[in-house]
Structure formats: structure tokens, C-alpha cells
Amino acid sequence: MKMETPTPAKTSIQVIERMMALLDALASYTDPVSLKELSRVSGLHPSTAHRILNDMVVTRFVDRVEPGTYRLGMRLLELGNVVKSRLSVREAALDAMRALHRKTQQTVNLSVRQGDEIVYIDRAFSERSGMQVVRAIGGRGPLHLTSTGKLFLSVDDVKAIRAYATRTGLAGHTRNSITELARLERELSLVRARGYARDNEELELGVRCMAAGIHDDSGKLVAGLSISAPADRLQEDWLEDLVQTASRISSTLGYRPIAPV
């Protein structure tokens, strides 16, 4: 029986698969790894692994620390920085926001901080689902009266929070607005403890919101994801979906939470 000769396309794909197996193996170790260990983890014959690793050393995808030991190379960091520079919060969040809207049938907002206000930079909503609470893209709201704004205030230190209170006077919009520093500080303590924030008709009567934070690869809070709904429609079981969605967006941006010791 005649043996089938591998085509160039099959050979190329096989090489790529083997390269990825070695890169995945290297990524699972914090210290330089021996050829023997990489061969074992990747399932490749030592001579095959050695040949591919040599090629990746030349292209700087892998560094040879000393004869027979390897680690991930700086080229990967360079490419990762290129990807990071091109990835915006809006791009990372859009599909997840739409999915959350489909599940809740309420408006989902993406907001960032600018000075003493939040700015709504994107939203997911539909006209078909009846009455909607829609924040216009580009619209603004005070930090202390909005759920996302409270997230940003909660990561400030005491001095910065008090300076904000002095600058703004903690002006209120409704009878539910937080206008006293002591009450605001208590509210922010709850936000830190819970990991999410609420707006209980504080910006607008009849509207309630809940928000969870989005973090980048450095751990910095870069945006807030919130659900806005008529006060009598906001459901507590949406909170878990909201937090999980914000977490997935953060992961897309490269955020890895620090595991508790």
C-alpha cells in the first residue's frame, strides 16, 4: 500500500501546532524549563522540540537562558503590547453588553471617569422592549450620584474623596441623593466590601442602577458596566450576571485578579 506523502499545507499546520504546544508549555512555568521537561509536557520528541525551539530562539519568541533551558521571549511581550494598544474598552465590552441586555431586556451602560463625572461611552438597548432608561452616549453624571461613579470614588483615598466633596459640594438631584460626606464615606465602604455599587433613585427619581467595575491588565479600574432600569423593575438576580459580565470584559483586557492568600 502506498504511503500518503504529507502535503506542504499539512506540514505547515503541524509545525504551527507544535510551536503552540511548546509556547503553552513554556507559559505554564515561571522559571526556565529544560528541553526534557518541555518534550514531556508537549508530547514532542526531544529532537523535534529542540529543532522548533531553535527556530523560535532565532525569531525571539523563545529565549535560551543557558544550554538546554528555555523561557518565553521578549517578542511575545512586544506583540502583546501592540494588541493591548489596539484594544479599547468599548471593543472589548460590546458583545458582552449586548448579551447582558438580551438577558435582562434593560439598558446596559458602559461609562468611564472624566474628572468629577462619569461619561457614558456606549450602551446596549432596544426600542422593542417597552419603556427604557437610556443614558445618551456622551452624557454625564456626578460621581457620587451614579453607581459607576461610586465605583471610581471607592478606589480613591480618603483625602481625594474629601477633596471631591469640597469641590462639588455633593450637590443632590433628588430626595434620595447622598449629599453628606459621612454618608458618602459609609456608602463607599459598602462598595469596597461588596465589589459593586448601586444608585437608588439618586440621580433621577424612578430610576435605579447597579454597576460593576472593569479592570485592565494592570488592575486599574478603567470603566464601569451598569444596568439602568425603572425602579420597580430592577431585579436582584441580575447582579450576578452583571458582575460576571464585567469580569469577562476585564479578562479580555488582560486582567487577572490576585488570588487570596
TrEMBL record:
Transmembrane segments: none annotated. GO terms for molecular function: DNA binding; DNA-binding transcription factor activity. Keywords: DNA-binding, Transcription, Transcription regulation. Residues 13-74 form the HTH iclR-type domain. Residues 75-255 form the IclR-ED domain. The keyword Transcription regulation applies. This is IclR family transcriptional regulator. It comes from Massilia timonae CCUG 45783. The lineage of its organism: Bacteria, Pseudomonadati, Pseudomonadota, Betaproteobacteria, Burkholderiales.
